[in-house]
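User: Teach me something about this protein's shape.
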Amino acid sequence: MPSHGPGDFHTARAAGSPVGSGDAVRRYRVQVEKGIALPAPEAAVEIETILAHPRGWTADGRTSFQLVASGPADFDVKIATPGTVDRICGAAGLRTRGEVNCTVGRSVVVNLKRWVLGSEQFDGPVTEYRALIVNHEVGHRLGRPHLTCGRKGGPAPAMMQQIKGLHGCRANAWPYAANGTYITGPAVP
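Assistant: First, the predicted structure itself:
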């Protein structure tokens, strides 16, 4: 897995139907940094599946998403090497230290290291951790702030920075519980 890349991206040539029942559909593109061994169409399918999940952001009844390959988009999901993530996020004053992801401007920036390796704090499969990354960063695009553990032994909110520790919660990738309840906790000051 490369630690640095050229900073140029392939846009996935993949498009889907809108998911969710919200009136305003948020259109997004998936872009993968050139020179990494991750096919953009494969990443797009995985991200589309995450955003369409019944426990994802569409569970609020107001949010809808649509994967697009071209034309106007509300945001881009970029998967990039740690060095490129540091550059993009650092330009907005965020310190990612080659380790974490960020949301800046119209970009959700996913660190390839986390996409591939997950996090030691998250005891589930790496595919679930990928869902957490996407849900957390897209949550910021939706205006959601950072939260912390709401109840010891309960699921961690998707808006919790779980990579920094679970503080008594259980690892969780999804914003909503199976019964449709938003998983929340105290706001981070």
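Now, about its shape. Residues 9-143 form a domain with the Collagenase (Catalytic Domain) fold (CATH 3.40.390). The mean pLDDT is 96. If you'd like, I can walk through any region in more detail.
User: That's plenty for now, thanks!
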